[in-house]
Amino acid sequence: MKPKLYSYDLTDWLIAKAPAQKRDESRLLVYDTKTAKITFDIFRHIARYVPAKSLMVLNTASVIPARITLHKQTGGKVVCLFLVNEPEQRQNEMRVMVDRKVTVGDELLYEGVTIGKITSHGEAGIFFISLKLTRKELIHLLNSKGVMPIPLYLRDTKLEEPRIKDRYQTIFAKPKESLGAAAAPTASLHFTNEVFASLKKKHIHQSYISLLVGLGTFAPLTKKHMDENKLHEEWYEILPTTQKELKDASEIIAVGTTVVRALESYGMTKKHIASTDIFIHPPFSFIYVDHLITNFHLPNSSLMMLVEAFLQYKQAKHHLVELYRMAINKDFRFYSFGDSMIIL
To answer: pLDDT tens, 275-285?
Structure first.
């Protein structure tokens, strides 16, 4: 669990500030753990590598434009990210991430209308806000005035908001009433109808789960996470049809770390609708996942630990950082809008 094992150097120009021109034109690193063979290709050809008749599981979470600029009563701006991925747990309260100092009791307004009042302080930059709007009214405000919560390292992207709303969303996302993901399941951003057609020819069936991406996926690791061996909670749902398909599948391909979190949480608890705070790191014995499609993640992150745990479970000869260095040498693009990898 030592974060320093997950460090690597990345030149700034390899951080993808925009997606590939077409989703499936992103590049693909293929790692066969049985033979240790590494192949470089493009995502459009992924059907060539996945086992025929396997079950591919994807996350239908829909990203909501949950970032919005509010003002304090003093007039100061506060950029807020509302964590609408969490079902309401306290009456009219919601967690919110802010970009600057606020204190308990501060009221936050939009165009002179009070949105809510800060009621308590959580971890760094995270607060509870007591809403003056109904949750439905807040969702309407975010959908009409908010912006997509792309990672802050993309703040200087040249993409305009309509383009971001299109490309920071999967083509199969399914919105949920009064709920939404605070980040995209990025491994699924590469899929196109043409890719699905090629998978169908190989008799690879798709099945879907929903995990509302939030802090458990993108928040930086803290000492508390290490000490408690838990991440922030994220809500997931696995429908009865998917439960049956999981039971009957010979091999399962998880598309993204969010799918891994949902499947392995379900495997451990048998709860098909629940929150999970699972922290997957080496060593870990996987219950459902046989193969993994994933992007290239930030250094020292819980996502890197999850992928390394899978590599060790597969008895891979290469550590994840070695694979990342190979990708860097081939000018692969990293992070949310970057390229991808499949581990077989």
So the answer is: 999 999 999 99
What CATH architecture applies to the domain 3-63+165-343? 3-Layer(aba) Sandwich (3.40)
Distance CA 302, CA 311 (A): 14
Which residues have C-beta within 8 Å of that of residue 332, sequence separation ≥ 6?
Answer: 14, 27, 29, 296, 338, 339
Local structure of 290: helix, strand or coil: coil
* Per-residue DSSP letter, 203: T
Please state which of the four CATH numbers 2.40.10, 2.40.30, 3.40.50, 3.90.245 is assigned to the domain occupying 67-145. Answer: 2.40.10
Report pLDDT digits (tens) over 229-275. 999 889 999 999 999 999 999 999 999 999 999 999 999 999 999 99
| Rounded Cα distance, 54 and 43, in Å | 18
The C-alpha atoms of residue 229 and residue 280 are separated, in whole angstroms, by: 9
Domain residue ranges of the chain, discontinuous segments joined by +: 3-63+165-343, 67-145
**DSSP letter (8 states) at residue 73:** T
pTM value is 0.94
Strand order in the sheet with 340-343: 37-42, 27-32, 340-343, 291-295, 252-255, 55-59, 205-211, 234-237, 273-276
Rounded Cα–Cα distance for residues 217 and 302 (Å)? 7
**Nearest to residue 111, comparing CAs of 65, 64, 69, 67?**
69
Place of tokens 């908010």: 146
Q: Identify which of 298, 313, 321, 322 has the alpha carbon closest to the alpha carbon of residue 344.
A: 313
